[in-house]
Amino acid sequence: MAATDLDRRLALILKTGKTALETGADSQRVETLLQRLARLLGVDELHLLFNYRALSATAIAGDTTLTRVVGIGTMGVDMRVESALGRYLKSLDECPLLDELEDQLRTIARSAAPYPRWFVVVFVGLACGAFCLLFGADIQAAARAGIGAAAGLCLKFLLASLAPNAVLLTTLCAALSSILAALPVPGIVNSPDLGLAMTASVLYLVPGVPMINALEDMLQGHVNIAMGRAVSAMLLSMAIALGLIFSLTALGATPS
């Protein structure tokens, strides 16, 4: 295979891996997808190295060997895209035309979210309110938790376009959600379960997928990216705690 042909194929492999990592796939899942794609593209061997901010690959086809590196952006969660990539690649028995394959993978990567933001905000609020009820709180506390979570998520959507630091953004959202969840309302008997409301109102910020992926990557031997994901999840968890401490202080309570 000519070097230019292999270079084009390797670039497509790395773009696919970048998309999968940025939408919440663990490293072993990404490696399985990319190895299948490499076989479809006629690559004899593919060797991958995962880092938290970069994915490097060495491809061998005949006597030609090439190595490329692609940067990894923010690792979010969009299992819809990651699953679509897997389903599409598994459906291929042989490689289509390279242009067609590139167009299809690009379409999957750029597909729009299936739900509008207002829909997500409403149901995240309902979910956090339901968790509050599961914690044993009353209806008022659950409503407060839901309102706080919805408001915090609105703030997250609003500020996300400005690309602020993820730790700062998480702290601000946690502070807003927990303050609204526990803010005393004059003229009514406030719920005795405001502490549970504060806790439930920030559950949408918990970095569950990064935590799970970090553990899976560690167990599969992808130590570099596992450590990066673990540290990121730890920092976001600390940011949630900092936001809660700020709201407790603002409301005149003492963190315990």
TL;DR of this structure?
64% of the residues lie in helices and 9% in strands.
Give the uncertain stretches in residue-range form: none
The residue fraction in helices comes out at 55-70%
Counting structural domains, the number is 2
* Assembly category: single chain
Strand residues, percent: 5-15%
General form: elongated
Please trace the helix and strand order, writing H or E for each element: HHEEEHHHHHHHH
Number of helices: 10
Number of strands: 3
The main pleated sheet reads as: 3 strands, antiparallel
Q: In terms of structural class, how would the helical and strand content be classed?
A: mainly alpha
User: What is the strand arrangement across the widest sheet?
Assistant: 1-2-3
Whole-number mean pLDDT: 88
Supply Rg: 22 Å
| N-to-C span | 65 Å
What does this structure look like?
- The protein is mainly alpha-helical.
- The chain folds into two domains: 3-109, no CATH class; 117-250, no CATH class.
- The chain contains ten helices and three strands.
- It has a three-stranded antiparallel sheet, with helices on one face.
- Strand 1 and strand 2 (54-61) form a beta hairpin.
- Helix 1 (3-22) packs antiparallel against helix 2.
- The termini are far apart.
